[in-house]
């Protein structure tokens, strides 16, 4: 009863108050979660023989997820007072740089 | 001489550009001082590598410079740990070698062709200058007082606790690691304060560099999550914490896994689990934080926090189960011995045998940090008063750093940065309060009292107290003068300690002649040079593991064991060969193709670090593997004394180490008066005799003795009867006797 209410509250709140761009980010994050879960399930089913390959693939999704989440946090209007030094453009540039570093490490680690 | 003249004097430094010029000059001078104070040993002796470990780093750097990076990365070293060899590329932290290799190449590109040895010798002083600047940056993040950063830079530059590991010639991992440690912490504070991904990424990159250079990176991986965890418990979770921590962890963990020696450890061992756990917990908190902002019900929020706490406890339990099930490796012995301080002595004698792994005595703290050890708690207390996110970091670091430094002498090194930062905060607070030329007037005081009455209801107790000035000029002068004197004494103490305690190369031993002139005892290099010039290129040298790196570096000969104690059994084999009778040792040496045996003997000179003094550790390590063949008890007299003179036990007298050390020692003295100066023991009339070894070289002061392992006897006798035959001991009558012989087996 209450759970339904909470969840429906949450979804309506989300639908109403989230800007389009943030929803796009959320879709990307959801996609990353799906990819990560798929990799993990495959790892559990088929064994982790090239462990570095699994790790780099999995940590690429995890890393990208948290970076996107950080971008989402920094670009959300409500958090503006937390980040006086970070404008949305700066946040995006940071995001690009961090993602490049992440992917460099992942490609290097996957061999 | 009044307050006004003082004010005019103070106004000189008020302009913004003057200040920045002054700051740059001061920082440059501090960097210069920290470099200069590390050069005692180079100026007094010569520009050589000290100690034991640096010799391997130096050798690896030479290999890197000579063969290029890719060959260095897959370097299989067949000249150590004979017959096993060492996969060097995968078992070292390459940061130090790559750094000095890069500096060497850069200098060559600028057409300054410097010998790689000089780059290696002077790397630590150069990086100590950078450490001072990093400490300046870190401290500036902590307070608004400008002077604190400069004071911290000064302290960091010349504090003996750090100099002890970074004098010129000490080419060890710590040389660059402390700079990276302080700089990583600075970047972390910066990232946390701004909540910026970019600073988090920089922090991760420098963390990766730190992982590449020193095994002490585990300190960072445990300290940052601990800081985050304390912040969460204090209810200071913020989106900035999420951004900075997750960026650091995601990138930093991947960066650390690029180092072959670290490999999969960040996901498999217990040392790295706090970081992973806090990473997961932060995801949950971020989600709950979002939900909380979306749903304004008060009751529900309490539920959410209980839920978060429950998940935390559950995942902790899961971690414990995974550790006990063996999915996650438990704490390694080296780390575990930091918690259970008696562990190493009982289970891993090789860890306990290193003198740096002993608990720290009180005087060592004063010796290494002088004045700072007194103002350190004051600085921590001041951090408690302000208590922003970054002050929590200093507090957490101070608590953990102090604990570790108390458990192990060596970890004084990781304590030093926080002591410098906290000490600088304390001293600059004092100076800032007493160095105000302006005297508060009556109105000021009344206004302050009014403010006190008004604002006494809200906030912490400490924030209520209004700041009033100090009135009397004399109290100001007295206090500032006292601080200045203390600081001067600090500088003098640091210089004295550096000059007298930490600037002696262990390769050459210096002593004073009666007339005050210096006498240098250079037996080590004499002996290593002999090995280098007078033995086959691939002659295997057996010695105790302490000298493995130096033999590899200076004598350039293959060794059996060295300072990288990765194979305990192999070390125990050498220990067994050293502590057994010749009949037992000889087959062991034959099996390992040993050509020469090297022992260090300080009996003639009174040199304390010789092999007889280390002998009991050899016995203990060997006993750990072969308890029924080597027994420590047998080396003690029935009264429990460890003696080398006439009353030594038979086992002691027959051990290979004893025989090698005291072989022919009698002949130096008039009959019956051979005295071991180190142990103040009168040796027995008849010295030991060796039958399977022959003396090949003994250095000038008898510090290093090298023996050649004899080949098998030509006619197939064992060596003892062959020696006996040569000495003519065989009596004629005995030939008539028929011994009880067994039948020949074909």
Shape descriptor of chain B reads globular
Helix content of chain B: 55-70%
Discrete helix count of chain A: 4
Q: What assembly state would you assign to the polypeptide chains in this entry?
A: heterodimer
Task: Note the main sheet of chain B.
Answer: 4 strands, mixed
Tell me the strand percentage band of chain B. under 5%
Assign an overall shape of chain A.
flat
Mean pLDDT of chain A: 89
Structural class of chain B: mainly alpha
The total of helices of chain B stands at 35
Please give the most extensive interface between any two protein chains, plus how many residues each contributes.
A-B, 39 and 33 residues
Distance between the termini of chain A: 52 Å
Structure, described:
The complex is a heterodimer of chains A (111) and B (746). Chain A has 111 residues and is mostly helical. In chain A, 82% of the residues lie in helices and 0% in strands. Chain A has helices at residues 2-17, 20-46, 51-75, 88-110. The radius of gyration of chain A is 17 Å and the shape is flat. Helices cover 60% and strands 5% of the residues of chain B. Chain B has 35 helices and 10 strands. In chain B, the strands form 4 sheets. In chain B, strands 5-6-10-9 form a 4-stranded mixed β-sheet, with helices on both faces. A two-stranded antiparallel ribbon of chain B has the order 1-2. In chain B, strands 3-4 form a two-stranded antiparallel ribbon. In chain B, a hairpin with a 5-residue loop joins strand 9 and strand 10. Chain B is globular, with a radius of gyration of 31 Å. Chain A binds chain B through residues 6, 9-10, 13-14, 17, 51-52, 55-56, 59, 62-63, 66-67, 69-71, 73-74, 78-79, 82-83, 85-86, 90-91, 93-95, 97-98, 101-102, 105-106, 108-109, and chain B through 194-198, 200-201, 204-205, 238-240, 242-243, 246-247, 249-251, 253-255, 257-258, 264, 267, 283, 286, 291, 293-295, 300. Chain B: Belongs to the STT3 family. Chain B: The chain crosses the membrane at residues 21-43, 91-107, 119-138, 144-163, 175-191, 211-234, 246-267, 273-291, 303-329, 364-384, 391-409, 415-436, 467-492. Chain B: It is a multi-pass membrane protein. Chain B: Its EC number is 2.4.99.18. Chain B: This is dolichyl-diphosphooligosaccharide--protein glycotransferase.
């Amino acid at each position: 009863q209450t759970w339904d209410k909470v969840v429906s509250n949450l979804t309506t709140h989300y639908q109403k108050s989230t800007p389009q761009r943030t929803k796009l980010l959320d879709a990307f994050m959801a996609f990353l979660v799906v990819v990560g879960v798929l990799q993990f399930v495959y790892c559990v089913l088929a064994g982790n023989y090239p462990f570095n390959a699994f790790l780099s693939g999995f940590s690429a999704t995890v890393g990208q997820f948290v970076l996107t989440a950080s971008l989402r946090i920094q670009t959300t209007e409500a958090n503006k007072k937390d980040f006086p030094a970070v404008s949305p453009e700066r946040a995006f540039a940071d995001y690009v740089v961090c993602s490049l570093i992440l992917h460099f490490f992942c490609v290097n680690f996957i061999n | 001489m009044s307050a006004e003249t003082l004010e005019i004097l103070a106004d000189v430094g008020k302009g913004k550009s003057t200040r920045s010029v002054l700051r740059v000059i001061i920082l440059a001078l501090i960097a210069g001082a920290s470099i200069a104070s590390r050069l005692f040993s180079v100026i007094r002796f010569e520009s050589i590598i000290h100690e034991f470990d640096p010799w391997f780093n130096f050798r690896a750097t030479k290999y890197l410079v000579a063969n290029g990076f890719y060959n260095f990365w897959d370097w299989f070293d067949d000249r150590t740990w004979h017959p096993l060899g060492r996969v060097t590329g995968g078992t070292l932290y390459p940061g130090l070698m790559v750094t000095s290799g890069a500096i060497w190449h850069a200098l060559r590109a600028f057409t300054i062709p410097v010998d790689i040895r000089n780059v290696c010798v002077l790397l630590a002083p150069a990086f100590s200058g950078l450490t001072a600047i990093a400490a300046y940056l870190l401290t500036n993040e902590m307070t608004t007082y400008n002077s604190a950063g400069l004071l911290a830079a000064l302290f960091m530059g010349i504090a003996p606790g750090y100099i002890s590991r970074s004098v010129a010639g000490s080419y060890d991992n710590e040389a660059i690691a402390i700079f990276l440690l302080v700089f990583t912490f600075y970047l972390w504070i910066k990232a946390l304060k701004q909540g910026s991904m970019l600073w988090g990424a920089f922090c991760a990159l420098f963390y990766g560099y730190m992982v590449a250079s020193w095994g002490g990176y585990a300190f960072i991986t445990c300290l940052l999550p601990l800081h985050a965890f304390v912040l969460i418990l204090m209810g200071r979770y913020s989106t900035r914490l999420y951004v900075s921590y997750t960026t650091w962890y995601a990138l930093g963990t991947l960066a650390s896994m690029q180092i072959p020696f670290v490999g999969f450890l960040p996901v498999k061992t217990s040392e790295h689990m706090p970081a992973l756990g806090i990473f997961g917990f932060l995801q949950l908190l971020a989600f709950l934080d979002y939900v909380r902002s979306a749903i304004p019900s008060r009751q529900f929020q309490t539920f959410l926090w209980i839920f978060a706490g429950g998940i935390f406890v559950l995942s902790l339990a899961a971690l414990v189960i995974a550790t006990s099930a063996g999915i996650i490796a438990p704490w390694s012995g080296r780390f575990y011995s930091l918690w259970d301080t008696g562990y190493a002595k009982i289970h891993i004698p090789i860890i306990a045998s290193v003198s740096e792994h002993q608990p720290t005595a009180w005087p060592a703290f004063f010796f290494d940090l002088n004045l700072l050890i007194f103002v350190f708690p004051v600085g921590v207390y001041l951090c408690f008063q302000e208590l922003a996110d970054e002050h929590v970091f200093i507090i957490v670091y101070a608590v953990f750093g102090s604990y570790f430094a108390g458990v192990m002498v060596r970890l004084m090194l990781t304590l030093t940065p926080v002591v410098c930062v906290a000490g600088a905060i304390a001293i600059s607070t004092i100076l800032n309060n007493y160095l105000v030329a302006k005297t508060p007037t009556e109105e000021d005081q009344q206004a302050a009292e009014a403010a006190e009455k008004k604002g006494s209801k809200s906030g912490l107790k400490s924030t209520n107290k209004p700041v009033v000035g100090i009135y009397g000029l004399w109290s100001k002068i007295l206090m500032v003068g006292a601080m200045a004197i203390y600081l001067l004494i600090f500088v003098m103490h640091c210089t004295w300690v550096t000059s007298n305690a930490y600037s002696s190369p262990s390769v050459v031993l210096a002593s004073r002649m009666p007339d005050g002139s210096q006498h240098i005892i250079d037996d080590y290099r004499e002996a290593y040079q002999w090995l280098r010039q007078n033995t086959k290129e691939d002659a295997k040298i057996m010695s105790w593991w302490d000298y493995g790196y130096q033999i590899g570096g200076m004598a350039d000969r293959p060794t059996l064991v060295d300072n990288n104690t990765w194979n305990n059994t192999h070390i125990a084999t050498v220990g067994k060969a050293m502590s057994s009778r010749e009949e037992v040792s000889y087959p062991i040496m034959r099996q390992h193709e040993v050509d020469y045996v090297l022992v260090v003997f300080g009996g003639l000179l009174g040199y304390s670090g010789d092999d007889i003094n280390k002998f009991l550790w050899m016995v203990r390590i060997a006993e750990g593997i072969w308890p029924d063949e080597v027994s420590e008890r047998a080396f003690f007299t029935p009264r429990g004394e460890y003696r080398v003179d006439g009353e030594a036990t038979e086992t002691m007298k027959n051990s290979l180490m004893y025989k090698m050390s005291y072989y022919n020692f009698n002949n130096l003295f008039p009959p019956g008066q051979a005295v071991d100066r180190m142990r103040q023991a009168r040796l027995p009339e008849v010295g030991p005799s060796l039958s399977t070894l022959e003396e090949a070289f003994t250095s000038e002061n008898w510090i290093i003795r090298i023996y050649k392992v004899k080949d098998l006897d030509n006619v197939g006798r064992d060596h003892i009867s062959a020696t006996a035959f040569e000495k003519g001991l065989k009596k004629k009558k005995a030939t008539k006797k028929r011994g009880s012989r067994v039948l020949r087996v074909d």
